[in-house]
Amino acid sequence: MIYHYLKPRMARIIIQVIIKLSGTIVELLIPSILSAILDDYAPIGDLHGVYLYGAFMILCALLAWIGNITANKMATAISRDFIMDVRRDLFSRMSSLSARQRDQLTEASINSRLTSDTYNLHAMVDRMQRLGIRAPIMLIGGIMVALMLDVRLTLVMLCAMPFLAAIVYISSKKGVPLYTRVQEGNDRMVRKIQESMTGARIIRALSRGEMEREAFEGINSDLSARQQKADLTMAFVSPLVNLVLNIGLAFVILVGALSVSRGTTQPGTIIAFLSYFTIILNSLIMISRIFVICSKGTASARRISEVLQLPQDLQPSGKASAAASPAHIAFEDVSFSYHGGIPALSHISFTLPKGKTLGIIGPTGSGKSTLLSLLLRMYDPDEGRILLSGKDLRTLPLEEIHRNIGVVFQNDFLMKDTLRENIRFERDYPDQVLFHASETAQAPFVREVGLDHLLAVKGRNLSGGQQQRVLVSRALSGSPDLLLLDDCSSALDYRTDRELRHALRRDHGDATLVLISQRVSSVMACDDILVMDKGAVIGHGTHAELLKSCSAYRDLCRLQLGGDAA
Fold first, then answer.
1. Residue 502 near residue 496, CB atoms below 8 Å
2. Where does the pLDDT of residue 323 fall: very low under 50, low under 70, confident under 90, or very high at 90 and above?
3. Structural contact between residues 23 and 63, judged by C-beta atoms closer than 8 angstroms
């Protein structure tokens, strides 16, 4: 999957490899030139040869420097563009995930994959272009030139190679699973931070700061332990490589010294050979570091690919054909549960004609918001079907379902942006439409402060009631055919709530309205009311009918309205 993003850049990568390869080969010539100076020209006092080869050494050093800088700049540009495309597609795919898929991945894991995982992948691609080309060429080239200088010394050095290969193989095999566990621990850390930041006010209000710190410390300690285990496992690589190579270097010096004392090897050859041994040593150290980076990058690449390869969920299935029904919305024996757990909705059936108003009331956890999620096709029902204008929702594209719907969720959000952008939400509506929507939503402050007024993160510089009215303005600005309001007046006083309902009937009387509320006063004027409890409909009818037939509704009225609640 990741190769798909590298393929369009293969021409640039090949050019970068050629430049890197050329610079590395030129750099490999320098010790050989030094050997020639020391063995062939310096002993006989040939200064012309010394100066000529010395200038050639300087030229090779400059060419290698220019080549490495050019190749590294190209590698940086390629890896930057590569990861930018990965992040773009990953964000796009995450934005199109169904609610069920997001529940399975969790928000914390999604954030972690989009940040730390993409960083690890970027580091791997960047280092592979920089060190992944240079280190093997320096290693292989160094061994080849060393063989031409002295076969015996090279064979002594090569005896260490099987041990080095075993170290690198074992460490890389263990590294990927360990770093995968580190990223999973990072997901838990992100999730805890998100929860603490979101619930900061209630944590302070209930004096639960110490408890939260202890919970965070437990997650932090677990992540630290996972990171420590992974890092210690990989940290053994470099010291072991150095140990094996230093032992090999000691044997090379010993054998070389004996060869010089016997007159079978020139001192310049030994100096050049030691230079090549240092090159080989540094190359192997670089390779060991590459394996550490690749272990992290590979684990992150798998997590990113897992998201990119998720199938498109909630696609239209079957042919959309409208049934002969006057209902705008119809639920036919709908049942649903989250991830196969306790049923959230059980055998829900009702119809709502176009232009009518449906009120849904019930205690917390009765399934009201879940019903709204199914109507928006964030989830598909486990049983039964939902019809919109006579068409099964499962046969309609999501864009068609959402095109003419205005919605305010129970837990909605405001961006750090102007009121204009928060209300129109990337839709091309003139300011007059936005002002009209805000007036209907009982938000006169929008006109007072102006549409250019900047909101803080999550609208923190507005009161709770003002936030809700801005959200209602957003839903109304498109003049929707279907308006879904999920407890959107919980922060409003009773008078403002009443005026909002009157304004909705006046300005959007042709729209079908589904109103979820905890207040009887908000739903009592609706054409139809559903009373829900534990995922089931326990009462269905008008306010007057429910007062006679539903004891739970009657109790709610008596509790909230007092008297006989008639």
1. no
2. low
3. yes
Q: Tokens for 302, please give them.
A: 């798998």
Q: Match 């490899």 to its residue by tokens.
A: 17
- Write the burial class of residue 182 (CB in 10 Å: 0-12 exposed, 13-18 middle, 19+ buried): buried
Structure tokens that stand for 264 in this block = 């079978």
Is the pLDDT at 322 greater than 60? The verdict is no
Contact 267, 109 (CB under 8 A): no
Of 338, 344, 342, residue with least CA distance to 367:
344
- Rounded Cα–Cα distance for residues 149 and 294 (Å): 34
pLDDT value for 320: 57
Tokens of 18: 């050629």
Domains defined for the chain, CATH in brackets: 3-308 (1.20.1560.10), 327-561 (3.40.50.300)
d(CA 446, CA 44): 93
Q: Summarize pLDDT for 209-262 with one digit per residue, the tens.
A: 788 888 888 888 888 888 888 877 777 776 777 787 778 778 877 877 787 777
Give the strand pairing for 405-408 and 536-541: unpaired
CA distances from 195 to 93, 208, 213, 243, 422 (A): 24, 13, 12, 47, 24
How far is it, in rounded angstroms, from Cα 89 to Cα 73? 25
Q: What is the pLDDT of residue 563?
A: 56
Residue 175 Cα distances to 163, 222, 288, 303, 305, angstroms = 18, 18, 12, 15, 19
Q: Is residue 427 a contact partner of residue 479, using CB atoms and an 8 Å limit?
A: no
Query: Would you state the structure tokens that stand for residue 563, as one six-digit string?
Result: 């008297």
Task: Please answer whether residues 69 and 24 qualify as being in contact, where contact means their C-beta atoms are separated by less than 8 angstroms.
Answer: no
What pTM, to 2 d.p., does this model score? 0.71
For residue 167, what are its two tokens?
């170290």
